[in-house]
């Protein structure tokens, strides 16, 4: 990550504007922490947790890029709808440290950041206020709140202060949480290992990563999810096991897409900086023998319109063409047309 991300370069510039020479010293401190974590800690997560999708340097870079996309080009400054330079500095640190606890195991990883922070910073160089911010924000990016609910951002009600600047904890944590949710894609899995065989309970997460592309349309307030699904078949027909595998995978995709939409609404509720986001679009493309099948599917859009007395709907409940029965019939017709055309 020696060629820093755009949000890193903007933060460096804004820290210099806000704090003068001290700002450059602060950013150098960030780079030293980043490089040590990226070089010595994150690559070892795969050795300890080989079944996980990637939580290494590529994932961290993707989270940083997603955070910048969520905030937009004028993301850092002195405005009410911007992060100040110190808040941006805290966000960068929290992105770097948020997954390091996986080195001790997946369960509760968000609460095992302190020892890595202490490894990165010697006792003489530790800033306990900075450390508290990182532990608090990273601790709320997933998991459960102290009351046992999933509402981890609610308990971040107060602001913190660092380098004489206010740090809005909920905003920083909400941005981290949503950016992390959106940092999904083929870069998080290995084609070789998928063929060799991940453990059965991990396989679906790697298949999901392979199929998923996420985009952030900040000016339109939209999250775009594009799924590229490879349909397995034998001799122009699907076997019963192949049909079941496809059905199960589509069900998994629907639930994950709904989770992304919920995370977007959740983050935007707690952070005014994310209030522009109001919809999630879902597109599915089905690939058969390397060809994109024309199944006459239009994107499904989940919006923030909620009618009292109703519950959140899955894509297949919004558009019946996305139900497994309709998709299975469309795939069968497509295979039949291909087989007939080949004669």
Using only CA atoms, what is the Rg? 22 Å
Main sheet overview: 5 strands, mixed
Give a count of the beta strands, DSSP E runs of length 2 or more. 7
Please tell me the total number of domains.
Answer: 2
The secondary-structure class comes to alpha+beta
User: What value does the average pLDDT take?
Assistant: 90
Distance between the termini: 53 Å
Helix percentage: 40-55%
Query: Unreliable segments (pLDDT under 50, ≥5 consecutive)?
Result: none
CATH architectural arrangement of the largest domain:
Orthogonal Bundle
The CATH class of the largest domain: Mainly Alpha
Instruction: Count the DSSP helices.
Output: 12
Q: Topology as H/E string?
A: HHHHHHEEHHHEEHEEEHH
| Inertia-based shape | elongated
User: In what range is the share of β-strand residues?
Assistant: 5-15%
CATH topology of the largest domain: Hypothetical protein af1432
